[in-house]
Design a protein that fits this description.
By secondary structure, the chain is mostly helical. The chain has six helices and no strands. It is elongated and about 115 Å long.
């Protein structure tokens, strides 16, 4: 898995930072807001990566480089910024609280969308069932008609000669 080198660098920097007694603020420090966005995307890609890495790569998304390219940072800059924020516990806690809150809101949003889709599907399915039932009853009623409608049955029209009736009666006057 290609995220392992990323994780190893992260742990190594944490370890080095803990041993040196402090981390200097890097020249190209990533802002807190951008760190929040990077970590949110990293979490989403990591969870998507576990589902189908092949699908991501077929669509041109390579998890290892996607996030860094999206935000215009490199792995060294991220590692240095992450180490700095890790040393600043309150800042790091603030960043992770924002990440967690954002992911929770995103989860709630998609759960609500999923529930709405299920309701719409259920309504659509029930309407389809009603329609099929009505169609079935209509077909059944056509099959069970035994007597034909007398208005629809054509009877041949007979001419007066065939009937034996005179058209113009002759009077005796």
């Amino acid at each position: 898995m290609k995220l392992k080198p990323f994780l190893l660098v992260f742990i190594l920097i944490l370890f080095i930072g803990a041993c040196t007694g402090g981390v200097k603020k890097p020249k190209n420090l990533i802002s807190k807001d951008m760190m929040v966005n990077i970590l949110i995307d990293a979490k989403l890609i990591t969870s998507a990566n576990t589902i189908s890495r092949r699908t991501l790569e077929e669509n041109g998304v390579f998890p290892d480089s996607y996030i860094f390219n999206k935000y215009g940072v490199d792995s060294a800059q991220f590692a240095q910024s992450n180490a700095y924020y890790t040393y600043k516990v309150k800042d790091y806690e603030e960043i992770y609280t924002l990440v967690k809150d954002s992911l929770d809101k995103l989860k709630a949003k998609y759960k609500a969308l999923q529930e709405q889709e299920q309701k719409e599907k259920k309504i659509k399915d029930s309407l389809k069932a009603i329609e099929l039932e009505a169609l079935s009853k209509k077909r059944d009623s056509l099959k069970t008609v035994k007597n034909k409608d007398s208005l629809l049955v054509k009877t041949p029209i007979k001419t007066p000669e065939e009937e034996g009736v005179l058209i113009n009666p002759v009077s005796e006057k």
